[in-house]
Amino acid sequence: MIEAREVVLSFGETPALRGATLSVAAGEIVAVMGPSGSGKSTLLHCLAGILVPDSGEIHFDGRRVDTLDETARSVLRRDRFGFVFQFGQLVPELTAEENVALPLLLGGAKRPDALREARPWFERLGLAGLERRRSGELSGGQAQRVALARGLVAKPGVLFADEPTGALDSLTGEQVMDLLVASAREQGTTVVLVTHEARVAAYADRQVIVRDGKVNALVHS
Ligand SMILES: Nc1ncnc2c1ncn2[C@@H]1O[C@H](COP(=O)(O)OP(=O)(O)OP(=O)(O)O)[C@@H](O)[C@H]1O
Asked: Are 215 and 20 in contact (CB under 8 A)?
């Protein structure tokens, strides 16, 4: 479904990826682990078409991604990928339901249709009653569940989750992971999950370790 082949990327003098290879099958949930600074986020950003490697290739659904121009990559991200980051990154001016509807609106849906599709996510993720709140009026766990709904609402081919529980206490983090995995499975979404927490990685079908910019160890859970 999504693949990095021998990806090399440096930030100036700092090598971040030194020949990273990873292949994720459709519907698979893969956890990317590894020490701080090893290149996990950079690998995720390359897979997601946010960063372009210096060399190597990125493929998604049979298409080469890294050779697309910025516009084509941003359309691909909008239409086929979902994102959840460590701090939710909800748009503070929008209500929770508007945040969830955002990917549909950006994809061209009419506002009433987008909001109608967004609403069931509040029940599903235990957020009923919070639809009109803004991010400042939500707890960290609630905001992260809204971010998860936003990441999945457009039924992306791949959900990229970068430390999605990193800002949460462990119980809240487990609730978010339970919901992430259940929702992704329900709609067959492939998940690339960056985490340094073994307990979070244990939710994945497979764990890989990034060390010194290479995906150099595999652990089957
Ligand atoms: N925008 C940037 N500019 C310069 N250097 C960067 C940038 N982003 C990452 N790096 C460097 O690239 C290397 C890999 O960083 P990356 O964020 O991918 O690691 P990581 O494994 O995700 O780390 P962490 O677990 O701490 O988030 C590090 O040495 C980092 O300092």
From this structure: yes
